[in-house]
Amino acid sequence: MRIIDSYTIFGSWPAGGADLSLERLLETLGANGVEKAIAHSTDCVFETTRWTLESLLQKTAEHANLVPAAAVDPTLLVKPWEFAAEAASRGLACLRFFPEIHDWPVADYLPFARCLEAIAPTGTPVSVAITRPGQITALSRVPHAGDLPVILVHVADDCISEVAAVMPQMDNWYLSTDGMSHLGLLEELADAIGTERLLFGSSAPRGSLTGSLEYVRMSSLPDSAKEAILSGNAIRLFGDRLGDH
């Protein structure tokens, strides 16, 4: 089966730990037969600037199997929505938001809402890291969150019931499998929100790409569903943003 990893990273991490170098990411992708990987740089996470955006685009352009995704910190810039609109115009796979890392509330936070408003005309997918209960519900109420493809990533275990409650109401939302490990959870989610809403993601190299792949492969889902999760849904969602596919 083809593999498209919708969530990978590279760069440095202040807390240390895993090797997140670009070289390590490429090595991991090659060892696991990943055809395409949507990758963001930690530089963009910790410093949302045009320089880090250009650096991301340059580094990913050098590798045909990497597709860039830019992180946006709506607390850092005076008008982050202008940066978001500019980034969205560059043909990125998606824009990523990290409320927990950047310490902003999903609910009633106008700079984030303005970012979604600025991105909406481009149709660029948006991913949001979900780390606490209430964020998914709050996100569903943000203007334009229903107009864009939204990918929920890093979803904490205590937010899974919210996924099942909210996502059926949001036709254009997707759920990344990154971080999933509980036996039977993937099957339950496929039943709750539909296999077509699940995207394979690994957080590699910080997370285990091999383990993430085995989690999908060893599930009791039919091969057609596994193929959709591992690549088909991503091809449908990202389309030409993936480049040659």
What do you see in this structure?
With 245 residues, this protein is α/β, with parallel strands linked by helices. Helix content is 40%, strand content 15%. It has 11 helices and 8 strands. It has helices at 22-31, 42-46, 50-61, 80-88, 99-102, 110-119, 135-140, 160-166, 185-193, 209-217, 223-238, and strands at 4-10, 36-41, 66-71, 94-97, 126-129, 150-153, 173-176, 198-199. An 8-stranded parallel sheet has the order 1-2-3-4-5-6-7-8. Helix 4 runs parallel beside helix 6 (110-119).
Spell out the key features of this protein.
245 residues, alpha/beta, TIM Barrel, globular, 15% strand, eight-stranded parallel beta sheet, 8 strands
- CATH names the topology as TIM Barrel
| Mean pLDDT over the residues | 95
Fraction of helical residues: 25-40%
Share of β-strand residues: 15-25%
Q: Output the strand order for the largest sheet.
A: 1-2-3-4-5-6-7-8
Largest beta-sheet characterization? 8 strands, parallel
Compute the number of structural domains: 1
Radius of gyration: 17 Å
Number of strands: 8
User: What is the overall silhouette?
Assistant: globular
Order of helices and strands: EHEHHEHEHHEHEHEHEHH
CATH class: Alpha Beta
The quaternary organization reads as single chain
Task: Report a brief summary of the structure.
The protein has 245 residues and is α/β, with parallel strands linked by helices.
